[in-house]
């Protein structure tokens, strides 16, 4: 759900160096080695609700794990935590409980009829582990107070359920990029700092800032934690990462590539802000520039259409040159439910990053670029990213 802008105050030069010491490392307190926590930022939003309901449905055998790459044969021996071993919690500024959110998503056609009722106990259990986020309107706490409170919530969750580890996953609505020299950390960076302080890996499934500041990148490296991001690749950019290499491999010159997104729901409202839309479009543009070698003419426009709810339509218009300069056009239309596209990827990422943490890996994970518009290095072409992901699955296996 959208995180509100923070009031201004003076930042610390090192958000991890102030206040109380880190609550603990991944081994803090007793734990059950077979249980892994997933702590959502935006825990009552559409993506998180769909992920929790979907994980419960898969565990109960009510639905197959469609869209979960980690449930395919190449990952069977990677040692990933089972879907049934995931325990959910998180932060949100919204108050609508998960069972009610699931009912709303059923009405919207996101969840199948009857599923919310069938997994109500799982939704209720996860909702009981959601804590108030922030900063909210009128919140007078500074960055350090918020970070300490968020970190304490995560550590308490880990200890209460005796979890081996907790992966913090940001699925909140896109926030505008902070202005140069901003007085305070962006909300996504407050949560990222709290994750580091709690000794937890961090996944940024949004284009928001998160760890993407020099101070936080240095801090997460010093703590030896893995992290992955930014901005989940679910629809239009997924298709671009497949089509752009085709033009390069066939020696076809792309002259212009324009696109339009029509979407509603929380994302539509958040991206109606031009600054938030600019943050979102940066990843879409990166894919074309990386693969084609230069950014072609054209822009991506994002329009908020509240009547569409959780559904979106993405249209691309590609102008390219063929043999002897013949002018050609390719147009694509992608229509889908963003939450249903994103939820299996979020579950994949939580499992992969948890296993990477268990194996002692740290720092950015470019091998997970398959899931992101703006990955931590490596190719932007989907086929090459998938090869890297399969290789990563092999590295996660227990040594023999």
From TrEMBL:
Molecular function via GO:
inositol-3-phosphate synthase activity
Region (Disordered), start-end ranges = 1-36
User: What Pfam families does the database record attribute to this sequence?
Assistant: Inos-1-P_synth, NAD_binding_5
Give start and end of each Myo-inositol-1-phosphate synthase GAPDH-like domain. 235-339
Give the matching SUPFAM superfamilies.
Glyceraldehyde-3-phosphate dehydrogenase-like, C-terminal domain, NAD(P)-binding Rossmann-fold domains
Q: Name one GO biological process term.
A: phospholipid biosynthetic process
Q: What protein family is recorded?
A: Belongs to the myo-inositol 1-phosphate synthase family.
PANTHER family referenced in this protein's UniProt entry, alphabetically = MYO-INOSITOL-1 PHOSPHATE SYNTHASE
The protein in question is named: Myo-inositol-1-phosphate synthase
Q: Which organism is it from?
A: Streptomyces tsukubensis (strain DSM 42081 / NBRC 108919 / NRRL 18488 / 9993)
């Amino acid at each position: 759900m959208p995180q509100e802008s923070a009031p201004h105050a003076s930042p610390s030069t090192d958000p991890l160096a102030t206040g109380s010491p880190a609550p603990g490392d991944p081994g803090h307190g007793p734990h059950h080695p077979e249980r892994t926590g997933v702590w959502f930022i935006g825990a009552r939003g559409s993506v998180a609700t769909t992920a929790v309901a979907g994980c419960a449905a898969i565990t109960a055998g009510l639905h197959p794990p469609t869209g979960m790459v980690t449930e395919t044969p190449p990952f069977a021996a990677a040692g990933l935590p089972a879907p049934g071993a995931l325990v959910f919690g998180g932060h949100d500024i919204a108050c609508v409980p998960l069972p009610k959110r699931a009912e709303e998503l059923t009405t919207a056609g996101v969840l199948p009829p009857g599923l919310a009722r069938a997994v109500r106990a799982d939704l209720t259990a996860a909702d009981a582990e959601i804590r108030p986020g922030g900063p909210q309107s009128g919140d007078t706490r500074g960055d350090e107070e918020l970070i300490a409170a968020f970190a304490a919530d995560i550590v308490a969750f880990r200890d209460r359920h005796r979890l081996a580890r907790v992966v913090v996953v940001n699925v909140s609505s896109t926030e505008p990029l902070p202005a140069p020299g901003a007085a305070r950390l962006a909300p996504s960076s407050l949560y990222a700092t709290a994750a580091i302080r709690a000794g937890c890996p961090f996944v940024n499934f949004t284009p928001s800032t998160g760890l993407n500041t020099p101070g936080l990148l240095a801090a997460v490296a010093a703590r030896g934690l893995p992290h992955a991001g930014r901005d989940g690749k679910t629809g239009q950019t997924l298709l671009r990462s497949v089509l752009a290499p085709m033009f390069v491999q066939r020696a076809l010159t792309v002259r212009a590539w324009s696109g339009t997104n029509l979407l509603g729901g929380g994302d539509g409202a958040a991206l109606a802000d031009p600054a938030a839309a600019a943050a979102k479009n940066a990843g879409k543009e990166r894919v074309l520039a990386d693969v084609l070698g230069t950014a072609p003419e054209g822009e991506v426009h994002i329009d908020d259409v509240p009547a569409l709810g959780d559904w979106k339509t993405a249209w691309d218009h590609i102008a390219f040159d063929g043999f002897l300069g013949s002018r050609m056009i390719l147009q694509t239309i992608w229509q889908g439910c963003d939450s249903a596209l994103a939820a299996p990827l979020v579950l994949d990422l939580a499992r992969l990053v948890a296993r990477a943490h268990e194996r002692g890996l740290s720092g950015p994970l470019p091998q997970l670029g398959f899931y992101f518009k703006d990955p931590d290095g490596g190719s932007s072409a989907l086929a090459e990213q998938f090869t890297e992901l399969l290789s990563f699955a092999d590295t996660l296996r227990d040594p023999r």
